[in-house]
Write a structure and sequence with these properties.
The protein is mainly alpha-helical. It has four helices and three strands; from the N terminus they run H-H-H-E-E-H-E.
């Protein structure tokens, strides 16, 4: 679209410059007024030239813009979902770590999420410590991550 605008504007400027040179070279008189009138019509045609094929160009431009907008929306939604998954995993891991601290255990869990109806939920957790049954029960009861999706470091 910008290329079409640039080409159109270049054409209008070229016609205007050419007409200016012609006007400067013409002597005063009837011929000059006829050439000015004709030159004005030529300049008007140069200005209005894009309107001749505007319907198809605008439709194509609209379809291209609509497609680009849909692609961008999809990319934003994908990035938003990725950020939501990362934030939820971080927050749940911090929550588990805090609970571990309350139980006297230092841990750095790694939480993975899974989509349920388009919303990320904590799905499994990998712990860097041996099994602590009280913490495992808390993770299962509070966060809904059952024992079979909890991975604990072997002793």
């Amino acid at each position: 679209m910008m290329d079409l605008l640039r080409i159109w504007l270049t054409g209008v400027i070229a016609v205007a410059l050419l007409l200016s040179v012609i006007y400067a070279l013409l002597p005063a008189g009837k011929l000059r007024s006829v050439v000015r009138f004709t030159g004005g019509l030529v300049l008007l045609l140069a200005v209005l030239r894009p309107l001749v094929g505007m319907d198809t160009e605008w439709e194509m431009g609209y379809e291209d813009c609509a497609r680009e907008i849909q692609e961008q929306i999809g990319a934003y939604q994908e990035e938003n979902l990725k950020q939501a998954r990362d934030i939820i995993a971080e927050q749940v891991a911090a929550y588990i770590s805090d609970k571990g601290q309350q139980l006297g255990v230092s841990c750095h869990p790694r939480v993975m999420t899974q989509l349920r109806d388009g919303v990320p939920y904590p799905d499994n957790v990998t712990m860097d410590i041996p099994l602590q049954q009280e913490l495992a029960d808390y993770i299962a009861d509070t966060l809904g991550i059952p024992a079979e999706r909890q991975i604990w470091q072997e002793r």
